[in-house]
Amino acid sequence: MSNGWRRSDLLFAAFGLAGLELVQAGEAPSSNAIKVDDSTFHCIRQMTPVRHFYVDNLRGNIAATLAAANDPKGAVYPEGSVVQLVPTEAMVKREKGFSPATGDWEFFELDVSKDGSKIRERGFAEVNNRFGNNCFACHAPAHEPWDFVCETGHGCAPLPINHTMTGALQRSDPRCGPEALQPGDTLALWKLKAMLLIRAASNWFRSFV
């Protein structure tokens, strides 16, 4: 990407979320703790696709995660569930009682490259994207019965990007090796870049007001 915008910049900046008061997470018993580190996150397309997003389960219970994701009435996701719409953002279902305010979901911002993933930021109600907007605020309206997972009709505010753009980001995940772009993906990525440049310019001008 030119003009100082890397592909990971596009991935990170895809979502502008509203702010939310911070909530302190609890401590999980160490014997039951789910290990989450840089190595947890890999090529998004190696996860299991569900409609427009991907899921996995760090406990190996992918069947239960899929059952929750596909329940038309909504369901609570099992421990270890991982949900990702784009490569640089993830939510992981932690141990029961770890963070009641967020439904035990932990949110992650990631740096991704051909060499793998680096956790840029992690936490519960306090995680913001690189523009300072809060992740949990977007998911809070989908509390019940969708267990904080946003999709169309779940009560979350519409995303500023469409499924063509999120699909293009998924298919250009640098951790997956060669890009698997489909017709229209290159244009979608350039449109996303233009949107972000306009937003950055607008923020710059507002800083002088």
TrEMBL record:
Gene3D superfamilies registered for this protein in UniProt: Cytochrome P460
InterPro entries per the UniProt record, alphabetical: Cytochrome_P460_sp
Name of the protein described by the UniProt record: Cytochrome P460 domain-containing protein
Species assigned in the record: Ramlibacter monticola
